[in-house]
Amino acid sequence: MPLDLRAAAPAALALRSAASGDLVVPELHVACTFFSRLVGLQFRRQLPAGQGLLLLPCASIHTCFMRFAIDAVMLDGAGTVLRVVRNIRPWSGAFAPRGTRAVLELSPAPATLAAGDQLRLVVRRDLPDRLMRRLSCLPTDHLAPSPTSKGAS
């Protein structure tokens, strides 16, 4: 089933800056299956501010069938921003640099992220083990107690 960005709040996932602790993406959605990555944000009317889509694993993106421009943030497995591509218009694409593990798609915004920034995944509630295994490549802060997060920070 395609990803539904209109899921009830509060979001289970967010991304924060490792340096400042500020939330960069308060409401993070994940596409980690072939079909959910393929569909991504296609056919959506917009991506509201504060929301983002994390494509994992991912080495390139396209904006075919999209109605709006996006910013793309390429991340390595340590959560380090490798590259930021701003204002990717519909019917375009972007290739990620070598070492990219995930791509974060955001609404175009003033420059808040730059290459070299460190991001951490914030898990606010229990998630299925299958999803947590896929997300394990990124540094994670668990705010919800779960069997997989005991003792983790």
Describe this structure in words.
By secondary structure, this protein is mainly beta. The chain is about 10% helix and about 35% strand. It is built from two helices and ten strands, in the order ββαβββββββαβ. Strands 6-5-8-3-2-1-9-10 form an eight-stranded mixed β-sheet. The longest helix has 7 residues, at about 130-135. The radius of gyration is 14 Å and the shape is globular. About 25% of the residues are buried. Mean pLDDT is about 85; it is low at about 1-10 and about 145-153.
TL;DR?
The chain has helices at 34-39, 129-135; strands at 13-17, 23-31, 51-55, 60-62, 70-75, 81-88, 93-95, 102-106, 119-123, 140-142.
Short key terms for the protein model shown above:
10 strands; 153 residues; two-stranded antiparallel ribbon; eight-stranded mixed sheet; mainly beta; disordered N terminus
Summarize the helices and strands and which ones pair or pack.
Layout (H helix, E strand, L loop, with lengths): L12 E5 L5 E9 L2 H6 L11 E5 L4 E3 L7 E6 L5 E8 L4 E3 L6 E5 L12 E5 L5 H7 L4 E3 L11
Parallel strand pairs: 2-3, 9-10
Antiparallel strand pairs: 1-2, 1-9, 3-8, 4-7, 5-6, 5-8
